[in-house]
Design a protein that fits this description.
The chain is α/β, with parallel strands linked by helices. The chain has 2 domains: 6-19 and 91-219, Rossmann fold (3-Layer(aba) Sandwich); 22-88. The protein contains 9 helices and 8 strands. The protein has helices at residues 22-35, 51-61, 68-88, 97-104, 118-128, 147-157, 171-179, 194-199, 213-219; strands spanning 6-10, 17-18, 92-93, 109-113, 138-139, 163-168, 183-187, 204-206. The strands form 2 sheets. The chain has a 6-stranded parallel beta sheet with strand order 5-4-1-6-7-8. A two-stranded antiparallel ribbon has the order 2-3. α1 packs antiparallel against α3 and α3 (68-88) runs parallel beside α5 (118-128). The two termini are 22 Å apart.
Length: 221
């Protein structure tokens, strides 16, 4: 099958859905189990962050030396705790997201650029009922700590499409799009307001997916 020549890459948390506390709690539980040290996750800001960098920060904070075997084990245990949390409290999909994905998926390839590890990304999508729209293409928070390089990986895995949009809710998403020659679409679902996202230079800013007329026009759908 020929790879789609047009791709939309989506961030997950704060863009498509929210799952307050589920990821942070899972991170803390997995860290305590694997490294034997309880940690306070309250000060950690996951907006625009990547799982690799959060793990590295916690290890430095607890004076734990680099240990590839334990780090791999952490990323194996993290989705187990996340899945448990999502079973107890499923994520909340933002208004208009389902209709948006259903419409654009008929014309564009859909991929991910997310700070979540790959396993955790698809757990969140599955619990949100959004997984049917996304294949195996993307850049993930256990690929690289740098979101710009994650976006580059996503483009490579998509076969370097001729047109690419990156949808996110943080300045980091806007920068990743700009660095990689993608059209940046910022959605005001997360921690940053319209003024901030416009000041960061987003090509298009949406208040919500319920008001996506401008984006639909840009996508020709």
């Amino acid at each position: 099958m020929t790879a789609p020549r047009r791709y939309i890459f989506c961030d997950i948390d704060g863009t498509l859905l929210q799952a307050p506390g589920a990821g942070s709690s899972a991170f803390g539980d997995a860290f305590a189990e694997v490294f034997g040290v309880p940690v306070d996750m309250a000060p950690i800001n996951f907006a625009g962050a990547t799982d690799i960098r959060v793990l590295a920060h916690l290890m430095r904070e607890q004076h734990i030396p680099h240990n590839p075997a334990l780090e791999q084990l952490f990323f194996e245990r993290l989705p187990v705790f996340l899945d448990r949390n999502m079973n107890a409290a499923p994520p909340i999909v933002f208004p208009g997201v389902g209709d948006f994905l259903a419409r654009v998926s008929l014309h564009w390839g859909l991929g991910l650029v997310t700070g979540n590890s790959k396993s955790c990304a698809y757990i969140k999508l599955r619990h949100a009922g959004l997984d049917p729209y996304f294949g195996n293409v993307g850049g993930f928070g256990d690929d690289d700590g740098d979101r710009n390089r994650m976006a580059a990986l996503a483009l490579e895995r998509a076969g370097h499409p001729e047109r690419a949009f990156l949808l996110g809710d943080t300045p980091s998403d806007i920068e990743a799009a700009r660095v990689n020659g993608m059209v940046s679409v910022a959605v005001c679902n997360g921690s940053f307001d319209r003024a901030t996202l416009e000041a960061e230079g987003a090509d298009l800013v949406l208040d919500s997916f319920e008001d996506a007329g401008g984006l639909f026009r840009a996508l020709d759908v």
